[in-house]
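Before we proceed, please read the two lines closing this message. Let me know whether the structure tokens fit the sequence:

…
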Amino acid sequence: MGIVGHLAVFFVIWWVALFAVLPFGVRSQAEADDVVPGTEPGAPVRPRLLLKFAVTTVVAAVFWVFYYVAYRVNLFGVS
């Protein structure tokens, strides 16, 4: 598999990790008793997306390293 294939696998792992990381630390406006008029009460007060993207990238990199080692050792049975 070439670099494009490995990048595609990293992207898939990153995307799955993003959906796992997104709900952590979210407080809605209703929970914070700070509902802005005209907005959804369930909207997050501070989504902190840059932090979540950084955490997602680190998590995805760790899982990708496990994948790459398994690929190099040929645990998947493909060459």
Q: What stands out?
A: The longest helix spans residues 49-72.
